[in-house]
Design brief:
Blueprint: H1 9-20, H2 24-37, E1 42-48, E2 54-59, H3 68-72, H4 84-88, H5 99-105, E3 108-114, E4 121-126, E5 134-138, E6 143-149, H6 156-160, H7 165-182, E7 187-192, E8 195-200, H8 206-217, H9 219-223, E9 225-232, E10 235-242, E11 254-258, E12 261-262, H10 266-276, E13 288-293, E14 299-300, E15 311-312, H11 315-331, H12 335-344, H13 363-367, H14 383-392, H15 398-402, H16 423-430, E16 450-455, E17 459-464, E18 467-472, H17 473-491, E19 496-506, H18 509-517, H19 519-523, E20 528-533, E21 536-543, H20 551-565, H21 570-586, H22 596-608, E22 622-626, H23 627-633
Parallel strand pairs: 1-7, 11-13
Antiparallel strand pairs: 1-2, 2-6, 3-4, 3-6, 4-5, 7-8, 9-10, 10-13, 11-12, 14-15, 16-17, 17-18, 18-22, 19-21, 20-21
Helix pairs in contact: 1-5, 2-7, 10-11, 14-17, 17-21, 17-22, 18-20
Bound molecules: adenosine-5'-triphosphate (ATP) and magnesium ion (MG).
Amino acid sequence: MSQIQKLSARLANQIAAGEVVERPASVVKELLENALDAGGRKINVLIESGGVKRILVRDDGEGMSKDDLPLSLSRHATSKIQSLDDLEAVATLGFRGEALASISSVSRLLLSSKTENASQGWQVLAEGRDMDAKLSPVAHNRGSTVEVRDLFFNTPARRKFLKTEKTEFNHLEEVVKRQALGRFEVAFELSHNNKVIHNLRVAPGLRDKEQRVASLCGKPFMENSVQIDVEATGLKLWGWVALPTFSRSQADLQYFYVNGRVIRDRLVTHAIKQAYRDVLYHGRHPAYVLYLELDPALVDVNVHPTKHEVRFRDGRLVHDFIFRSLHKALADIRPEDVQLANENGEAMPFSALPENLQSMQPIKQIAEVEGVTMNPSYGPQSAMAFRQQASGVTPNSAVGATTQSFYGSSSGEVREPLSATGLLETYKSLHPEKGVGDEPYSEGDFPLGFAIAQLHGIYILSQNSSGLVLVDMHAAHERITYERMKTDFYRDGIQAQPLLVPISLAVSTKEAAVAEDCASELEKFGLLMERSGPESITIRQVPVILQNVDTDLLVRDLLSDMIEHGYSDQLEAKANELMSTMACHGSVRANRSLTIPEMNALLRDMEETERSGQCNHGRPTWTAMSLKELDKLFLRGR
Ligand SMILES: Nc1ncnc2c1ncn2[C@@H]1O[C@H](COP(=O)(O)OP(=O)(O)OP(=O)(O)O)[C@@H](O)[C@H]1O
Ligand SMILES: [Mg+2]
């Protein structure tokens, strides 16, 4: 007699449910996805007792016909794909045809629906046990309502894993939040135990979107972030990234969407982390809400049962694109962006970034050109090559030369202060490109204002058109020196040092193959290595700046990055780290008194320098207070 028996439909579904239905939040996720796939424009989510007792999701989408209703509850029944070809380019959130079957196997599920043309609605009840669906007529508008009661009533083991009502609701709210951030064209309402928690109207315009993001992610996030919108070779990335100074202790404010689907992906996280690397305080996490749009055929969503992970056909291209776009956006943040945010108490989006990758004009000017989208012509160049170029060939690196330190060279020495006969005059002569004819300069041209005094040998007190600014001199100078060193380093080409005794390294076959593949690319960076056997490589030359670091370790890290991410920034990272340390030691120390012109020169340099809002360790370099805030402090005008 055969030992093998077929599982009953119910048991098979319950096993499948183990993957999809973990807790009330997972039910809500599936139901919301269905409502969105059905084209719902208004979605209501009603929750009782953290979702354990009752979850109801109503949409005004296309609905289901009488015949489709019972079918929708059976396993592997879907209207969303029919062939493998469809799966390759799936644009809907669901496609497995498993969610409703799974949910109904572990709960009491009532599904009501009506299509546009049907004369009446129908409902079907499934109660876990037999998987038989009973049909009956019901009054319903176009769209569907799914009600899930008593989750896990027939699977006590699962019920035991549920947490408190509050915790379950928090998870569930997070799910709604994620969907609501992903679909601005849909209105959402969430209520818990008859109390409305979120009521979000459709958000067509930029302001509406920002309002929705602010109400879901908090106003401070919106106030401390910049908007980006970049498009290149079939990829589009837009959304909001927080200023580095608005970092978080946890990675809890990170939303990333790929074609409207919220995902958590190592490649994406890595690219973003890397873009923030130079500006984030150690151990802190960036905050962002970002949307990546690309041809659905270039991304595989069928990787994980909960569809949280995706696989990009060309991971390297995507990584590179995300990294470059964010790196650029972060480098371009200037004092004026932050200040505008402070003054009005609300964020000033810069919907436009410089047209040209190399231009380093102050954002203020560009922000005035509403609606211009950055559209750099990204070629298929490598990440490394790009970064070399991005950090190196800035025509405006002349900025570094023109404002050359009144407050000291990069070695920390103070030069003769320029005779301070009117700062504006001095500034004007240094920056002939900044003024046309006799057009007078005004304070408003200088976001960081003019220095008034030095406090305790540490801070510069400065006055600008809207209030006061405090600058941490050492932190600011450190960043400026560091950025300048990087510019010089990459512009002058990388100096390499042949090794007297080449280093031989035993590696895996895979590592050896990768080393062979990327040898020419690494050579551009000054590292010369070759495969010397099936499982060995020989290093013959290293970049001068890295000659004293542990080459073995560096190359091993580099190869493991290459294997995992398709490329590595270890060389650059190490070089940058060294420059950062040198910059730190070479910068103005606390308790050194600076003259007023020296201080002003530092302020002007900050306005011109990339990433000048944070020191090399990610700490803020300056802070501002508007007159309004000062007045408030002294209860003026009340
Ligand atoms: N709210 C809804 N409005 C209209 N049709 C729906 C709705 N919910 C489900 N359906 C129909 O029921 C089918 C089954 O839904 P189910 O969620 O089980 O599978 P799916 O969405 O196709 O795939 P997945 O398992 O990946 O979610 C869907 O393909 C769709 O045709
Ligand atoms: Mg579904």
